[in-house]
Amino acid sequence: MKYDACYGKQDNMSTDKIALVTGYTGESGKALVKELINNNQFKKIILVGRRKIDYTDNKYIEKTEQREIDFDKIDDYAEAFRGADVHFCCLGTTRGKAGVEGFRRVDFDYVVSVARLAKQEDCKHFHLVSSQGANENSFFLYPQVKGQAEAALTKMSFERLSIYRPAVLMVDRVESRPLESVLRTILSYTVQRIAPEWITTPVDILARAMCFNSFIKDRVGVEILDNHAIFRLSEQQSSSKNDQSKATNEL
Ligand SMILES: NC(=O)c1ccc[n+]([C@@H]2O[C@H](COP(=O)([O-])OP(=O)(O)OC[C@H]3O[C@@H](n4cnc5c(N)ncnc54)[C@H](OP(=O)(O)O)[C@@H]3O)[C@@H](O)[C@H]2O)c1
């Protein structure tokens, strides 16, 4: 099912759910963890990655649990995926960084393995950060691999699978990616000002959308969220936050 925009109501502020994030050391993963922590709707946030982050902020220390794994031996680490109701997968690399095989290994093999273990460990709702243009029949490597990962996950029959297809992620990237950085600079002075939803997605908008979407009730099956839907969900997250702070102020 494809959602052009977002429909649906959120559950009340639920705090008994546990989230798990893979790819949490990356740019969209970091934005998501920040949103999940500040939003406070999850009781706990499990972070699974190939390395740990030395958090100094108490909110992160109290709310998160980091689990380090070797993705090449992922089947030895099934217990790292245990205990989560909702999984957010922000894993990914680039062909430039990892080569063709390395890109396939991370963006297909690791993503599919992570989803398989999440399902095995009874995760009910899996969120995948995929990409605009994902298409398993594409002639080009990037959209093809993204489309293949989406198709493989779709076959896994999660109770709920949310696939996000953001456009160019707008973020001050820590890692140096010169071409991407030039593209982002051009976009931020042109497209982002005129038609922000066309081919750009700020990572905080993606994070807000994913967080809000995990508490929308009465949705099942597979949903594909294009950039327009990501922006709509993010707006709903912002307005629900405003409503909550209004309600708190009125108490
Ligand atoms: N960049 C864009 O404009 C754009 C646009 C649309 C969609 N996307 C997609 O959005 C997703 C997230 O993108 P992003 O820019 O946030 O990614 P990112 O900053 O590059 O972070 C990627 C994450 O994956 C992990 N990872 C990469 N290679 C790994 C490996 N070999 N073994 C284990 N973990 C590995 C990284 O861990 P480390 O920190 O340890 O490296 C990091 O946590 C990706 O799937 C990407 O394709 C990106």
List keywords for this structure.
single chain; 251 residues; alpha/beta; Rossmann fold; eight-stranded parallel beta sheet; two-stranded parallel ribbon; 10 strands; disordered N terminus; binds NADP nicotinamide-adenine-dinucleotide phosphate; Protein HTATIP2; NAD(P)-bd_dom
Describe this structure in words.
The protein is of the alpha/beta class. It has a single domain (2-169, 202-240), classed as 3-Layer(aba) Sandwich (Rossmann fold), CATH 3.40.50.720. 45% of the residues lie in helices and 18% in strands. It has nine helices and ten strands. It has helices spanning 27-39, 58-63, 95-120, 141-154, 178-189, 191-194, 196-199, 203-213, 227-250, and strands spanning 2-3, 17-22, 42-49, 64-68, 86-89, 125-129, 160-164, 168-170, 200-202, 221-225. An eight-stranded parallel β-sheet has the order 1-10-7-6-5-2-3-4, sandwiched between helices. It has a two-stranded parallel ribbon with strand order 8-9. Strand 6 (125-129), helix 4 (141-154) and strand 7 (160-164) form a beta-alpha-beta unit. Helix 1 packs across helix 8 (203-213). The protein is globular. The N and C termini lie far apart (40 Å). The model is unreliable at 1-5 (pLDDT under 50). Residues 23-29, 49-51, 71, 90-93, 106-107, 129, 131, 166, 168-169 line the site of NADP nicotinamide-adenine-dinucleotide phosphate.
Blueprint of the fold:
Elements: E1 2-3, E2 17-22, H1 27-39, E3 42-49, H2 58-63, E4 64-68, E5 86-89, H3 95-120, E6 125-129, H4 141-154, E7 160-164, E8 168-170, H5 178-189, H6 191-194, H7 196-199, E9 200-202, H8 203-213, E10 221-225, H9 227-250
Parallel strand pairs: 1-10, 2-3, 2-5, 3-4, 5-6, 6-7, 7-10, 8-9
The structure holds NADP nicotinamide-adenine-dinucleotide phosphate (NAP).
